[in-house]
Structures are given as structure tokens and as C-alpha cells.
Amino acid sequence: MRTPLLLTLLAAAVPTLSQAQGYQEVDGLIAIEAEDFASQTKADIRRWMKFDASTPAHSYADADVTHVEGASGGAYLEILPDTRTNHDEKLIHGENFQPEPGKMCVLTYPINVTQTGRYYVWGRAFSTGPEDNGLHVGLDGKWPESGQRLQLCQGKHQWTWSSQQRRPENHCGTPFTLWIDIEEPGQHTLMISMREDGFELDKLVLSMDEGYTPEGLGPEATRYVPAELPERSEFKEISHYKYIWKVEETFKADEDGDIPFYLHKGKNAYAINAAKVPYRKGFARASAVYGKKKSATFDLVLVTLAEIDGESEYRVLVNDKVIGKFQNPETEDDYSEAYFKIKDVTLNENDVISVESNAHTNGKIPEGDGTAFSRGRWIGVVLQ
């Protein structure tokens, strides 16, 4: 049974959705707050745990105190329990030491890159002994040799940056020897996994500049910020629907009638050119065919655009039979949407739905020697 303390620590180690949305490469650099990971797996024996000023005391094996002070963002991760802090304590493969990458304590970080090539990996870590200073780095489920065995020897008992890889000829590693190659632009998954328990990680930086060395807290995290989603700009008050038939996509204007529609592209509406006097009397028409084989019954909503210079009339027809007549309301908000519902309209395969409208003047808007006309604008039909 999990103890309340363990549940508290586990909750502290889970990032919020906004934190886990990932990171973006900016000018060849990616900066990651270690505690803001997307997922943790293979954590049954050892586990990355988050520490910040609010973390309660714990009872796991741990050779040192917390090191929140000086951590970027006031938080960091540590692999616990920590049962091997020096050479005299027993080394147990698969428990307190894991030379193979991807086998224990795997964290993932979504990253998005536009520039491809070699990225040198830097880790900001806190080491208090010889057996808490190793880590592995991978990409997209693979663990290349160049990303294994990040090592920290210098800068003990303080937050220190390293891009050194432990090698047989140099256990402390040589600077600028840890990297991953990203060959395709777009979305990738950066991964880290345990080499030694007790490892404390504050931040990761990936840089395409071979000579770059982060200092202090390092650069600000380059979090991925998604673009704002487009808000609804038409059919604004339609809360539910089966189909939306927009005029420019579904309805064909009647080319044989005395009064034609034209497409007002800025409003995605059919309209009548009321500047032509002959078009001011009578109705224009556009039609669409119901192409579904199965009959269905809908509430039909005609969506029009109310206009300040007139209150146009509209007719809705099915197979040339009028099923609804409407007139736009007066408005002071030009091109505001108006909604007219016809309930329980049954449509069969190949039924023809037509919409007619006319031009109208309310005598309120001067234009030339007379007054302006509304143009019978409408933007579509909704089947609910």
C-alpha cells in the first residue's frame, strides 16, 4: 500500500499540462527545466522526484539535504532512493547503477526543432560525491553512444554545468563531448535515464554552437507556446449542428434569374448588387441538393446578415415550395448575423433547398440622389 508521503512525492513529480506541452528550439538552442517533463517510465526501482520549497521531508535513503536554493525556477529532480554515495558502498547493477541507457528512470521531453544538425547537450547538476554524477541522454527511443554517460567531476557541492562524457581514458570526461544529432525538423522526444542514483538535475540545454557554455542559471526555458486558435467568426450563435451549408461551398446561384447573386468574399455571403436599379425589385435565388440517401428530419436555420440600410426579405423553399418567410431585423450593427429557424423539415435524397432574398431600403442612409439599399446578404443554412 502506498503511503501518503509517497503519494505526495509522486504528485509533486507530475508536471501540469501546460508544463508538459514541450519545448521549442530558438536560434539553435533549447533550454529545458528538468522538473517539467512529459512522462516518467521504468520507475519501479528508482524514481526521479521533484524538490522545491514546498516538498515535505521524506524517509528514503538520501545522503544529502535538498538543494532548492540556487535551482533554476526554484525546483529540481533527484533520483531516489540513493544507496550508493561512495566507492565503499556496494554497487548493484540494475538497482543503484545502470550502465545501459534507457533501462531505468526514463523521462521524456517533447521538443520541436526547425534547425537540424548536432546539438551539444549540457546538464546543470548538483553532485556531492563520486557516485551521483552520471546520466544518459537519448532521442526518439534511441540512445546513441554520443549521448551516454554525462559526467560531473568538477564543481562539487554546487550547481554546475557539464557537457562531458565519461570515457575509458578519461573518467571525468572531456568538455563538449556529449551531443545528439537531430536529422529531421519537427517534433522529437528528448529522453534522459539514470546511470547513478542520487543524481540531481536542474536544467538541460541543447546548443548547436560547439563553443557555447551556459553560465549561472542558464538561458530561460524555451517553452513551446502554441499559436492562438482561431475564434469563430461566422455562425457565431450556432451551438450545435449536423451540417453547415455555407453559400460559397454548397449553394449555386441561379444564373437564369432576372436578379443574380454575387459572392461578397469579405463576408462569405451571397448578395445582390443593389447599385443596379433593376435589381432592386424581385428576388435572387441560390440552391443546393440534399445528397444523402437516407431521409432525415432537421430544424433548418437560415443565417443572414442584418444591414443598416434596409431589412431584406428571405424565402426558404424545398422543391420550389416555400417553407419559410423572414425579414431581417433593424440593426445598428452592420452585417450582424440573424437566425431564422424552421422546425421539423424532412429532407429526402435529391431534394432541392433554395434560398431567395431581395434588396430593400429603409430610407435612413443617404446615397446619391436617394437612399442606400440592403443587399439581401446571407451566409448559409444550418441543419440541426
UniProtKB/TrEMBL annotation:
InterPro entries: GH115_C. Residues 95-220 form the Gylcosyl hydrolase 115 C-terminal domain. Pfam families: GH115_C (PF17829). The keyword NAD does not apply. It comes from the Bacteria. Keywords: Signal. Residues 1-20 form the signal peptide. This is Gylcosyl hydrolase 115 C-terminal domain-containing protein. It comes from Pelagicoccus mobilis.
